[in-house]
Amino acid sequence: MESAYSWGLNRAIFYAVAKRGFPGARPTAVAGETARPRETEKDLYSLGNDQAYRDPKSPGLLFTIGGETQTPESFRKQVAARFGDSRNFERAWEEAVGIVGRFDDEILRSGREFYSQVYKPRRDALVAKWSEEFLGSPLPKPLRARAGE
């Protein structure tokens, strides 16, 4: 589970940055600044056709992005906490595992196929459902429209 949480948070950050970019980021360090550690090719880990850098210092299999390790604790604070409490998160996790379990390995190992066949068709509806069920509040109107309500 620790590796799954680390991978999930790593991918969430990666795709959010790919979509929005780093606001105010500079492409290189300025003289006199300490640069973050650089991930190296030997630390590259592949899962299906997706890749992330693993933290060579972690005792388990944890992942890094921008030199920062994506820990299970970070996942709990940044992702799981959005569900209100741990029971809600566990219920949503089990539902998501059930959905993913209905697809072939070939689809799950392809980032493109996973996104188009598993994630995107369900994303907005699950957000709407879980917001109502776990937080007791409906989505704002623009998100309800995207979720097909």
Please explain how this structure is put together.
There is one protein chain. The protein has helices at residues 2-20, 72-78, 86-100, 105-109, 111-135, 141-146; strands spanning 44-47, 50-54, 63-65, 68-70. Residues 28-34 have low confidence and may be disordered. It contains six helices and four strands; from the N terminus they run αββββααααα. The longest helix is centred in the last third of the chain and has 25 residues, at 111-135. The chain has two domains: 2-75, no CATH class; 84-146, no CATH class. By secondary structure, the chain is an alpha+beta fold.
Helices and strands in order:
Layout: H1 2-20, E1 44-47, E2 50-54, E3 63-65, E4 68-70, H2 72-78, H3 86-100, H4 105-109, H5 111-135, H6 141-146
Antiparallel strand pairs: 1-2, 2-3, 3-4
Helix pairs in contact: 1-2
Main attributes?
alpha+beta; 149 residues; four-stranded antiparallel sheet
Brief digest:
With 149 residues, this protein is an alpha+beta fold. It is built from 6 helices and 4 strands, in the order αββββααααα. α1 crosses α2 (72-78).
> How large is the share of residues in beta strands?
5-15%
Oligomer kind: single chain
Query: Which class best fits the helix and strand makeup?
Result: alpha+beta
N-to-C SSE series?
A: HEEEEHHHHH
Number of helices: 6
What's the helical proportion of residues? 40-55%
The end-to-end distance, rounded to whole angstroms, is: 33 Å
Strand order of the largest sheet: 1-2-3-4
Count of discrete domains: 2
Global geometry: globular
What Rg, in angstroms, do the CA atoms define? Answer: 17 Å
State mean pLDDT (0 to 100 scale).
82
Please mark out the parts with pLDDT under 50 across 5 or more consecutive residues, or reply none.
Answer: 28-34
Tally of DSSP β-strands? 4
Q: Which sheet architecture does the biggest sheet show?
A: 4 strands, antiparallel
